[in-house]
Amino acid sequence: MLELKNITKIFNxxxxxxxxxxxxxxxxxxxxxFVTVIGGNGAGKSTxxxxxxxxxxxxxxxxxxxxxDITKLPEHKRAKFIGRVFQDPMTGTAADMWIEENMSLAxxxxxxxxxxxxxxxxxxxxxxxxLKRLDLGLEDRLSTKVGLLSGGQRQAITLLMASMNxxxxxxxxxxxxxxxxxxxxxxxxxxxxxVEENHLTxxxxxxxxxxxxxxxxxxxMMNAGKIILxxxxxxxxxxxxxxxLEAFHKTSGxxxxxxxxxxx
Amino acid sequence: MGLLNAMPGAAAxxxxxxxxxxxxxxxxxxxxxxxxxxxxSMVTGMAVCAMLMAAGWNVWPAMLIAVLAGMGCGLVTGLFxxxxxxxxxxxxxxxxxxxxxxxxxxxxxxxxALPARTFDVLIxxxxxxxxxxxxxxxxxxxVTLLYCxxxxxxxxxxxxxxxxxxxxxxxxxxxxxxxxxGLALSNGVVALSGALMAQYSGKADINDGRGAIVIxxxxxxxxxxxxxxxxxxxxxxxxxVIVGGIVxxxxxxxxxxxxxxxxxxxxxxxxxxxxxxxxxHLKKTYFNxxxxxxxxxxx
Lengths: 264, 299
Ligand SMILES: Nc1ncnc2c1ncn2[C@@H]1O[C@H](COP(=O)(O)OP(=O)(O)OP(=O)(O)O)[C@@H](O)[C@H]1O
Ligand SMILES: [Mg+2]
Prior knowledge:
Chain A is α/β, with parallel strands linked by helices. Chain A contains 9 helices and 10 strands. In chain A, helix 3 runs parallel beside helix 5 and helix 5 packs parallel to helix 6. The longest helix of chain A is centred in the C-terminal third of the chain and has 18 residues. Chain B has a two-stranded antiparallel ribbon with strand order 1-2. Chain B has one domain: ABC transporter involved in vitamin B12 uptake, BtuC (Orthogonal Bundle). At the A-B interface, helix 2, helix 3 and helix 5 of A face helix 6 and helix 7 of B.
């Protein structure tokens, strides 16, 4: 479904600040895979997701979705296949626009946006039903500016938006990291529901090893722009935080780079 | 008495500036871009309308071509910004300078007379009340059209581009394209106000657009202050901007009437706008009261 072939990304090439953020990465996802990604700060996790989403061009390699080469496709065209939730709750929604306006932007992702009304009455019914399932009391606030909502509410709405219009791929970049533990747990539960219900192929970056172990059917660990561990199936189910740390030490031969990664 | 007599004329000119300010509103508020093209595109609107009418054109097609020319100006700025990666503010300055030459070439000289006695213009300062009615109608139609536009899928995408570019792209919106369209639309509206101004004042002059952006910003800011906490949709907001244009021009006339040195007027306008633009920053820096969270607990 998703294929990364020898992806390389170098920031500030040929300067003193040159940084190889992705070093010849290859990864193949099957339909319906839910991959969790862990790794220390600066390991290249966000860069990998951004490369897939097309935030910047890559310096080498190929990206394919369902066999179609999207390496050269601009970000807004790739959005047709890809739903995203960012770490910063401010990023995923338009603060000055209403909840229903934000949702209507998402439902038209990948479609032609012409000169017909953005929102019709039967759209509102649909949005209400979707919001009701979040159980955050948002279904009666369709014409509230998103900027007035809490971070957790915004992430939940962004998740809904990301799952609209049948994306082939859902990219979550530490989307619960900015939330308090209780809210984070709730958003994670909503994530799980949405992913299962829509059978979304998902990549979720997290700094919480336990979350990475509890969710998904596959776990990869990154370090210094490389994928250094890739654990699936039964092996993944048997994972514990300790065994994961041990595996990391064996593969990389160094102490785990980030203290944050130990939390949880 | 003299001041009172000047009011209908001031209001009419205020409406014209209000229309121009709607153009500024589209870039400055909706797209969140500072576009300095307007000083030039306003004169382009004046020049095109005046020259075509002087060549015997009917006023309506002359105004239509003026608007299209204004949109062309915005297009140039938009392409400078998106295709060539030049910062928006510099792109506008470049186009503005280009337009100085272009406008001179359009007119073939520094100004063109368009006297209402000779030409069949829509509005003229010779008939101020008539002009007021016509201009008010223009405003109603313009605000209605733009309101509808902002409500369409295309218009919503344009607003999202101005509000959160990263989000817009993640939702599949071609933000570059929407910026270009927004800039073209904005400068089309500005050129329309120029075409109206040329008819009203009976002339087009290469210097007439100088400082237009500041007047536009002033109208936008005054408009925001006027609508304050009213329930806000785009009709209210844009009406506020137009009223802002009128207030600006009425105050301007009053200050002149009170005998202020007219040489100082541009400086004063700019200072007033500078103060108002600084307000959000000053508030944040010096009056930062910790605000109660307006956030509900159930998230
Ligand atoms: N736009 C950029 N310009 C220059 N360097 C960048 C840029 N984005 C990322 N980098 C660098 O690339 C490396 C990988 O960054 P990336 O954001 O992918 O890390 P990450 O694994 O997501 O880390 P974190 O856990 O802190 O989010 C880092 O060294 C970072 O400084
Ligand atoms: Mg990151």
